[in-house]
Amino acid sequence: MDASPSSPPPPGAFAPGDFRVLAVGRAGINALELLLREDFAGARFVALHTDPVALARSSASERMQLGSGPGRGLGAGGDPALGRAAAERDAGAIRGLVDGARVVFLLTGLGAGTGTGAAPVVARIAREAGALVLGVTTLPFQCEGRLRQAHAAAGLQELRAAADAVICVPNQSVLQTLDERTPATEVFAAANQLVAEGVRGLWRMLTRPGLIQLDFSHLERLLRGRHAESVFASVSARGEHRAREVVERLLAHPFLAPGDVLAGSDAVLINVTGGPDLTFSELERVLEQVQRHCEHAQIAAGTAIDDSQGGGLTLTVVASRGGSAPLPEPGPLSIRADAGAGEAPTPTVAPARDQADPRDGEFLSEGTGSSRTSSRLVPPVPELTAAQRQQLVARGRGGPIKRKKNAVQTTFKFDIVSRGRFEKTEATVWQGQDLDLPTFLRRGIALN
Amino acid sequence: MFDPASIVVGLEIGTSKVCAAVGDLTPQGAFTVLGLGQARSRGVRKGEIMDPQKAAEDIRFALAEAEQMADVEIRSVFLGVTGAHVRGFNNRGIHPVVSADREITAEDVEDAIRNAKAVNLPADHAVIHTVRQDFAVDDLEDIENPVGLVGARVEARVHVVHGHGNRIQNSIRAVQGLQIEVEQVVFNGLAGALAVLGKEQKELGALVIDLGAGATGFALYSDSILRHSGVLAVGGDHVSNDLALGLNLPLGRAEQLKLDHGGALVEEGSNGSLLTLGSEPGLPDRTINLSHLRRIMSLRLEETLELVARDVGPLLAQARAGVFLTGGGARTRDLVALAERVFQLPVEIARTQDVSGPTASLDQPEFSTAIGLARFGALRQRRRQPPPGGWKNPFSSWFGR
User: Does B268 share its domain with B151?
Assistant: First the structure.
């Protein structure tokens, strides 16, 4: 045991010792480096990796080599199976790391060996130990290749199934935020920065005294057992119009890009952090504006004062979508139909090609066709998060599908919703939305 | 019986109905509605004519009915237009005062207004109205009439409403095809406001929302000045269409259901209460959950009102007299409560103001646009503005002052 209190603390009171940050794999460790530069008094940071060399580069006080048993001591070599095996072998040691923690942050990057393989194992162990497990993970760039994408997709499903919530930072959409001439090192740094930001935002929320306090119990109630996939966005603005700008920036954030991400979410965590000069009207405006975009989600809004923020305003939003029941077997495209979104037959791209790739077979979500509504109405294809879209694209390239006997190949419906009476009229488009489509469909509201 | 010259007719070619109102302006300046005619509209979608032939039939029918009721012959109409293409914005024009004594003359004012009218429109758009707002002389703001003041520079502010030329022409041609002259084209949103806002309400500030079947028009007045106007091509048809899609019903039945059981709020306790739809003999009856119906409607109406609120923006605060709902959609149950929630202002169903005639028809929100159009015509006549030129020369419409 460690700094965590021996008797159960009163609910809501959050001791720094309850907070554990585990970085698994190289990407996680890199993100951890950013966190280590800051003051997280009391929190424990642990770096885990299969590769002792990479581990040695970390400045974390606690480091643990996974799979350090006899004969190994090398990296996972990009093979998630090796990563998983290594973590399973050291399950006992990992349990010791997470013992007594109430929140475990799992920083990782999916796609390669250790993060993809070991992170879900670590998440599972931490959850078994009673902690709320939040994964924060990067997803590979598209140019990193199909195999990595496939690994990442599978790993994400596993991680989702194991953790309470997973916040994805798809590198590809990080790229969109950056200038084309940005040096490669900075691109990776930016992705890590976002991962760090995610942790920092939540840390701030949990520990800073809030005007409207959002504490551990809120977080737990919102996330516990949901296996949600979350999108995270943190934006700041300064100056006279910061309240308005910060909302605009949030909505323009690449992770929330289509604007419907918020509308499609079923749990949203909003935190506003400002300097001592934060006015209540600003606060009110920001919260009201954001809530207006996610009216149908369960919302937890909080606000905190941070002296170091002087003049600035930071808005942190974690929007979760999906999952209330335990996840079924991995299927990278299972955009869940029960996501409160009145959606959605699983869209599958992937025109069948001849080349065989055994992995694809297991990703085909089986029998989704039968779960379709009997209504003649086919709702629009749900808005995908950037991560999901990326997976879809990766899927499309990786196409080949072995025809399993009971696998159902679903197809995209192109005539998505009949426009009914407005079939032949000019569409009424407002800010990219076709207003002729029923509001409840566009907002993804289930009638039942 | 009536002086034919004092007869004015407003014609609205709406999405659900074509409506004609015959009005008469007494020498004393009182405005009376003599007759109303309406016909179900079949050739219009979202406020614009899609099937000219059917539209022409419907117009003929509506005008004939109005003629019969008012016992007059209709030769010319003031034609209402709406549609997604219609837009309003504010513009200003500056004119330097050059006379030696720096006194502002009527010509200076005219020049300033002319400058304000010289607006940059999309190539195929035409101006429907330019409405005078107020003036500024040097640094002096909010001047109603600057003639006679002394200053170096007079600035005129106007509200310009413009629309797509060809699409306006479609409506005009449909009427002209019936050998009826179009005196002027008028934006429906303004006509609605003209019918339902009294002097005090304009002075105090009011937002009028005309919830039609195909489009929702709105106009905001404050200090007796038209501040904002616009159209959203979403209306009652969208509600019906949503219901048809959401509840899996034919459109006609959805429409009927909307009228019979619709409401803008999801009531407590409506969950689980079922509506049974009668059906053809031999087929099983269908049941529909009332709360689904309400939720679909509520979402659509709320969104529509929110979009209006967003379009009006911060000016909304100037609507101190509140929000006035008109048009057929205003009849929706609980809409007032919903609108109060969206706008955070007092909301009421508008009533036609300062108009006499058959009360039963004047109080119907459906007729306010047609009555407003006739009233617009009457005001034009009172000002003894020469009517010819039609909408091509609409610069002379000083609205509502």
Answer: no
